[in-house]
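User: Could you check the structure of this?
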Amino acid sequence: MARYETIEWEIRMDNKTNLLGMTLLQLHELCAAEGFPKFAAKQLCDWLYKKRVESIDAMTNLSLTQRARLNEVACIGRETPVRCQVSKDGTKKYLFPVRRAESGERSCIEAVYIPETKSSDLARATLCVSCQVGCKMGCHFCVTGQQGFHGNLSAGDILNQLFSIPEFESLTNVVFMGMGEPMDNLDAVLAACSVLTSDWGLGWSPKRITVSTVGILPGMKRFLDESQCHLAVSLHNPVPQERQAMMPVQKVYPLAEVLALLRQYDWGGQRRLSFEYTMFRGENDDLAHAAKLAEALKGLECRVNLIRFHESDEAPYKTSMPSTIAAFQSYLNRHGITCTLRASRGQDIDAACGLLAGQKE
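Assistant: Sure, the predicted C-alpha cells are below.
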C-alpha cells in the first residue's frame, strides 16, 4: 500500500504580486515602479533563487522601508503541498493548491519526485512538473487530457513545485511532463526555464531540463529558437490516421510537419531530441509500426523512449505484452534508432505517465 503524508494549508487569497517566478527583467520593472535602486532587482533574485527565502522580511540587505513596501504589494508566492503520496518504489507524488488570479477559484495540480541510483552509484533525482490545470489536447489515453482544460499555471506556480518540496536540494533534473501541454503555456514555461538556467537564477545547465510537447508547431519553433533545453515529442503512432484517432492534435499539426520542423535544427550538440512512444496492445506495437517509425525518423539525431501504457478506467487501451515491447525495441535499435524502455515508476499511486489528475478528496 502507498503511504500518505498530509500537510495542512490555507490558500492565500490576497491580490499581491508573486515574486517567485519573476525574471530579472521583471524584477527591474517592479523595482523601478516602486522607486527602488536598480541594483535591488539583483538583490531580490539572490534572495528568491539562491537563498530561497520564504519571507520578504528575511531579505536583510533591503532597507526596512523597502521591505515594508514590498510586503504591501508583493509576497514570495510559495505554497506548500497539501498531500504527499509515497510509492513502494520510493516515488513521491505531491499535490499543490493553485487558484485563478481573477476569481480565486481553487484547484490542485500534481508533481512527481522520482529518485534513482544508477550502477555508477551516482544518484539521480527527477521532478516531473505540471504547467496547466488539466489540458486542452484531449489525447484519448491520458487521464489529464480527459479532464479538459481549467487554466494555465504561472511561472511561479511551476517553480513552486520545485521550491516547496523537501527534496529540492537533491534534484538533478526537471521534466515538463506532468499535467498540461507546455507549448500551450509557453510564456510561463520559458520564464520558469530562464529562472532555472540563468546566472541570476539557479544557474542550472539546460541539459538538466526536458520539455515535452504533443507537437504544437508555433510553440515548438519559438521554444527551439529561445531555449537550449531538451525537447521530447509525444509521437505514439507513426500512421497519420491512427495517430489522429488517439491524438486530436494530429489533425491541426500533422506529424510530418512536426518532423520537417525538427529537421531544420542541429541535434548533434548539447541539446537532445527524444520521442515518447507509449505501447498500446494491438494498436501501435507490431513490427509494421516499428518499420514505419524507423522510416519516419531516419537520419534524425534522436532517441525513442518506449513507455508501458498504464491502464485506467478513462482509456480504452491495454498494455502491450513484454515480449512485444522487446521485439519493437530490438527492431528500432537494429535499424539505427536508439531506443530505450522507460522504467515505470509510481504506478501504485497513479504517478506514472498519463495518470496525473490533480484530484483531492
